Inverse folding.
């Protein structure tokens, strides 16, 4: 551990400077105007992998944005770790809510503020620097492969085809991912499950054009009103989702599982203070930790229609649209839930409007084992680095490709993240603690060490 700490200390400013370079690329995969920046970010990652000591580094084209691949095979008899991450980021909008420019990383109070700092540039780049550390100190204990993609934030549409076309190249014993959070640095944790996702767009159309709200108001259905009524009906008075068959495959936690989940450190008052809310909200009969980790949800992510510019324009709009995400738990399939949702929305739409549902993307829920060699290696690494055994937790977010890796490559993943739930992922003023960044670089070599030892 001392050798690891010494190398990090000697190179910490360079590690930070390189991360800042990466964060300056506005690699927003959702917006075509950033295409050149996304491609430049991919080239940067490839160059840094080469400098760190990786072989066969390649920027692999796909039908969308490229996947950066690199490897270091030191001994075919040793176990192989496949590191996954993504260099694309969410849009930074709304820009006016950022305290500093989203693509000009800024340090405040020991935290790096920038889009992608925690999700996922700061986290996957820890692996690149940890790999460099192991190469330079001659302590690499496993074979390592890197697969860093550029479309995670838009559903990883082309990753599956790449994986299926490169089965031999991607052969490994475990997938190691840092794209999740810990409870805190004082209470380290490892995610052992993630929710799945069905992400849809609902468009409601009324008249064939925007109408004068005085001349036509009261005689023609307003699509915004109808859409709002439809959305409001999707939860009952107990905040239970009302879609028929939605819960049919959901597995209830056992009493023991509930007790274990709720034993994790959690301060509800601190939670509410951090979010500036008077009360939490959610499905009746479940705790906050259960709601965010083990229960399915339905959320409206965006809604628009009519005139939203400055001043007044009295129109009865022709259309209204909403983006809706459904977080799924084990046994719920994204395709099945999408079909159930579409059937229900079409059924509750009144004859005064037309409804169109578009499936944008989805992914499957996953639970990772806690008795595997890889999990035990992660547990030992965190315990040595933090001085405390990590708590197994369930993550509320999703990484859709984890289930795909298991079904296609036949290997499990370890979700060894170093972010915090308070990092404002997908929001203005996203941040990543400098301490967490360095702590990740210190901990990851220990994972490789223990994974090699426990695999014997």
């Amino acid at each position: 551990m001392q050798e690891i700490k010494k190398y990090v200390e000697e190179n910490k400013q360079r590690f930070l400077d390189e991360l800042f370079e990466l964060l300056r690329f506005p690699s927003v995969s959702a917006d075509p105007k950033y295409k050149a920046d996304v491609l430049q970010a991919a080239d940067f990652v490839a160059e840094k992998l080469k400098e760190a000591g990786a072989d066969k580094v390649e920027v692999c084209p796909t039908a969308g944005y490229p996947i950066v691949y690199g490897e270091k095979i030191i001994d075919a008899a040793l176990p192989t770790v496949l590191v996954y991450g993504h260099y694309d980021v969410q849009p930074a909008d709304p820009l006016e809510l950022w305290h500093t420019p989203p693509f000009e990383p800024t340090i405040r109070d020991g935290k790096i503020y920038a889009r992608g700092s925690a999700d996922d540039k700061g986290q996957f780049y820890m692996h690149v620097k940890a790999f460099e550390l192991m190469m330079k100190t001659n302590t690499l204990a496993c074979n390592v492969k890197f697969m860093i993609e550029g479309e995670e934030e838009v559903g990883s549409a082309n990753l599956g085809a790449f994986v299926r076309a490169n089965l031999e190249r991607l052969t490994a014993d475990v997938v190691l991912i840092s794209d999740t959070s810990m409870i805190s640095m004082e209470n380290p944790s490892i995610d052992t499950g993630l929710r799945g996702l069905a992400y849809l767009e609902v468009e409601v159309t009324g008249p064939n054009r925007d109408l004068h709200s005085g001349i036509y108001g009261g005689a023609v259905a307003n699509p915004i009103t109808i859409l709002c009524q439809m959305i409001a009906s999707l939860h009952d008075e107990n905040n239970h989702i009302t879609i028929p068959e939605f819960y049919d495959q959901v597995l209830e936690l056992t009493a023991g599982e509930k007790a274990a989940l709720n034993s994790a450190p959690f301060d509800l008052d601190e939670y509410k203070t951090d979010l500036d809310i008077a009360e939490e909200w959610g499905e009746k009969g479940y705790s906050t930790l259960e709601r965010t980790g083990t229960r399915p949800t339905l959320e409206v992510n965006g809604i628009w229609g009519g005139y939203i510019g400055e001043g007044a324009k009295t129109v009865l709009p022709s259309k209204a649209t909403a983006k809706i995400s459904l977080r799924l738990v084990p046994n719920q399939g994204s395709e099945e839930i999408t079909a159930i949702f579409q059937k229900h929305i079409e059924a509750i739409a009144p004859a005064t409007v037309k409804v169109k549902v578009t499936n944008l993307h989805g992914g499957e829920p996953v639970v990772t084992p806690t008795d595997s060699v890889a999990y035990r290696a992660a547990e030992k690494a965190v315990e040595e680095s933090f001085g405390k055994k990590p708590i197994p937790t369930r993550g509320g977010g999703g990484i859709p490709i984890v289930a795909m890796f298991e079904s296609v490559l036949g290997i499990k993943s370890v979700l060894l993240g170093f972010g915090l739930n308070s990092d404002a992922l997908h929001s203005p003023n996203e941040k990543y603690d400098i301490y967490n960044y360095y702590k990740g670089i210190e901990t990851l070599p220990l994972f490789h060490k223990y994974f090699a030892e426990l695999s014997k």
